[in-house]
Amino acid sequence: MPVSIEALAQPRHDWTRDEILQWMDLPLMRLVWTAQSVHRLHFPDDEVQLCTLLSIKTGGCSEDCAYCPQSARYDVALDSHPLLDTQAIVSEAQKAKERGSTRFCMGAAWRSVPERESEFERILDAVRAVRSLGLEVCVTLGMLTYEQAVRLKEAGVHAYNHNLDTSPEFYPQIITTRTYQDRLETLQHVRRAGMTVCCGGIVGMGECRDDRAGLLEELTHLRPHPESVPINLLVRVPGTPLENVPPLDEIELVRTIAAARIVLPTSRVRLSAGRTEMSDSLQALCFLAGANSIFTGDRLLTTPNPGDDADAALLRRLGMKPAAADETSLGDRSEVSLP
Ligand code: SAM
Ligand code: DTB
Ligand code: SF4
Q1: Ligand 3 centre and the CA of 61: distance in Å?
Q2: Is the pLDDT of residue 327 over 50?
Q3: Is there a domain that residue 335 lies in?
């Protein structure tokens, strides 16, 4: 596929799965070199966005997502709790800010945003309070209507996370209680309401490379591309149906991130769940392949994350630094400045 790096700078919405597979099938060095070259057209090569997650409502979810410890259908050891009050949320957000996070993402184990006005108002309150700390607010609350999206936007939500998770073909093996189309509709409401879109998926669920390419293909068809693309490595939680899925070859994770960087050139690609299983070297390879965002702190929603000390040491080791808030296109980064 002889193509110039400059030709890859502009987001395209007509990528085919075969084209994406051709990238993923390349010799690894050529794939990663291309991804890093595209990365530098839009982002600095030494910055990582730091985001913090908080589960504001944990467990007891009606859905059957096979990967998820929070589904009420599986027997998972979990500290479930109802919606936290605003003060508890703000106190966690404040700590996240002090630790250098610029983005605070609140997640709730719901099929969809609550219809009950009193509960929805409590969420809007929490959003306003976190926003007033000067943090970028992201929420992930399940499916929503256009009207709910507008109210979240007005309260100060910057990004709404709602993942496609995998390819349309593999999806029914993972979730049966909502459709791929339901997810696309939620994403449309988010976009129409003026929030930015955070949408990605999970690798390592037993899918094949074709499915990973299929997920990326679907993401490229979103107009505009999602501003953030979380790539989660499955956390195999005991008690979930996927607890015994064989681990994904780690080079496959790198290939997926590199292909994501190439076909979603202006999106932040977030190396999301699963980092406790990754060596520093693997994470470095993922950054080289174009990942430029991570979740910090010692917990994701319900599962462990490396923690601030480990991440500070990782960034120091790699000579990387936290990105400032709300960066988007940063112009041409094709020149390397040497000390
Ligand atoms: N309930 C809402 C929903 O599903 O849209 C929001 C929270 S849900 C936990 C957010 C995302 O976390 C899921 O879409 C999935 O991609 C990711 N996730 C959940 N469990 C995971 C696991 N065990 N490993 C990796 N990613 C996971
Ligand atoms: C996303 O794609 N990954 C984050 C965030 N969006 C909400 C969640 C990861 C959850 C991992 C399993 C857990 O901790 O419960
Ligand atoms: Fe519920 Fe979200 Fe978990 Fe699915 S991923 S079971 S919708 S919390």
Answers
A1: 6
A2: no
A3: no
